[in-house]
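Q&A FORM
Asked by: J.P.
Topic: structure of DUF7336 domain-containing protein

PROVIDED:
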Amino acid sequence: MYIDEQDGDDAKLLGVYSTLEKAEERVRRARLQPGFADEPDCFVIDEYTLDEDEWTEGFVRVLPVS
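REPLIED BY: S.T.
REPLY: Here is the structure written out as tokens.
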């Protein structure tokens, strides 16, 4: 998934959950809410390890290929 806030995408963090099932339930509830209901397939659930760095070397912006 590519998110471009300058192009109108508006990324939101819905929460951090202890199980995949709880995260999936949150997505189900969000899909019923105004705004989120208009984009039912634009949800991402990622898994992370607690107490571990995710970004270790900085970042660069990669533009989509036209």
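FOLLOW-UP: The mean pLDDT is 86.
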